[in-house]
Design brief:
Organism: Roseateles paludis
Keywords: Iron, Metal-binding
CATH superfamily: Hemerythrin-like
Structural class: mainly alpha
CATH class: Mainly Alpha
Family: Belongs to the hemerythrin family.
InterPro entries: Haemerythrin_Fe_BS, Hemerythrin-like, Hemerythrin-like_sf, Hemerythrin_metal-bd
Order of helices and strands: HHHH
Number of helices: 4
CATH topology: Four Helix Bundle (Hemerythrin (Met), subunit A)
Protein name: Hemerythrin domain-containing protein
Largest sheet: none
Length: 167
């Protein structure tokens, strides 16, 4: 029995659009890289070198992507240890583990599953946690291009992610 392969790990939908140009552009690039890895792992002739190159590109992008969000979270008053940041750390750990697994020449099951599973995580993460970050940025009038505030944050640092689904 053969199973159909999805045409993409994640599809760009209006729900992923957060209406913050820097985040939306970064998210689109993430989706493109994830879908590129998905296409590669489903190509029968993918080599270990090609997989490592694709994983390296995804890891490099994701480090910069999460780093950008981490700087903005710090600027708008998120506590250093918050659930949004913890999710970022976990995802980077998984990406690095999968890369090490491929480099060691082990089975390809983890890298084959990665694009779809990471795509599913990303949809939730963007719609809940990243949307909460954008909302907080909007509430404080934070301009990510300049780092300036129209209304600087007041009060205690936010230890959650800003989402109602986070405690």
């Amino acid at each position: 029995m053969t199973t159909a392969v999805a045409s993409a790990a994640v599809s760009w939908t209006p729900e992923l659009e957060l209406h913050e140009p820097h985040i939306d552009a970064t998210h689109r690039e993430f989706v493109d890289l994830l879908n590129g890895l998905h296409d590669l792992v489903n190509a029968e002739a993918a080599t270990q070198g090609q997989l490592l190159e694709a994983l390296d590109g995804l890891i490099t992008h994701t480090e910069a992507h999460f780093g950008m969000e981490e700087r903005w979270m710090a600027a708008v008053g998120f506590a250093p240890e918050n659930c949004h940041s913890r999710q970022h750390a976990l995802v980077l750990d998984v990406l690095r583990e999968v890369r090490n697994h491929v480099e060691a020449g082990k089975d390809l099951d983890p890298v084959r599953r990665l694009p779809t599973e990471l795509g599913q995580w990303f949809g939730f993460h963007a719609e809940a946690m990243d949307a909460a970050l954008v909302y907080t940025m909007q509430q404080t009038g934070f301009d990510p291009a300049t780092g300036q505030f129209a209304r600087p944050p007041q009060g205690e640092a936010q230890s959650g992610c800003g989402s109602s689904g986070c405690s």
